[in-house]
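Model: Ready when you are.
Researcher: Fold this.
Model:
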Amino acid sequence: MTIFSKIIAGEIPSYKCAEDESFYAFLDISPVAKGHTLVVPKRETDYLFDLEDEELAAMAIFAKRVARAVKTVFPCRKVGMAVLGLEVNHAHIHLIPLQNEGDMDFRKEKLQLPAEEMQNIAGRILEAFGKE
């Protein structure tokens, strides 16, 4: 069981931003920008492109809704999407508010935000997602 599966199951706490029957979105605990959100399928699958076509399409549509919610909370030029997946063997999409392309540099120092701020951000994204 991956750390993301444990988060989905509620065994590990997370800052939930969105959820439906198939997908879960939560704040990255080491964000490259405020609002950096991860979207994962609830069905544990190592590699995004191992998902069935219908599931991959549904995940992209779910991520689109989450991205719109992130953009509502963090006005930005665009919300960038990245698929890396080398650190956690559970398919996931990174959604990051962007003002410029450098905002999506995973090599830069990660933010360390207080729990209260993370909870506030997640709550605002969850509220915006509910209005989608």
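Researcher: Now this one.
Model:
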Amino acid sequence: MTDSNKMDKLRALSGLQFRAAQAEMAAILRREEGLRQNLAQLTQSKQSQARAPRASDDAALVAGADIRWQQWVDQRRATINGELAQVLALKENCKHKLKIAFGRDQAVDGMRKQHAQQQQQRLRRKESYES
């Protein structure tokens, strides 16, 4: 196997690792966005429920369902906030992996370019020497 083939394979591997890290980060970002949207929807529905005018004979008010619903919303928000905290921790870890993968990919690309330049210089020297 020639040095060029080794460099090409190393470049392909580092590119693959970088793209995998990007895909992992994209999945985490989608999950974070979904959780944030869920929180916003719950907050909005709770606020709209609180602003809605109620009659004293409202069945939900009489049965206490509105209070139980608000408790459920609060519990659900707490659960989502816990999930969001976990996702944010994963995001930080993934950022670190992504930085490392990007650095490796850039380093390998630089090595490949440098190797190609060295080969071209060798060929030019060889041609000038033989002529």
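Researcher: Key takeaway?
Model: The chain has a mean pLDDT of 88.
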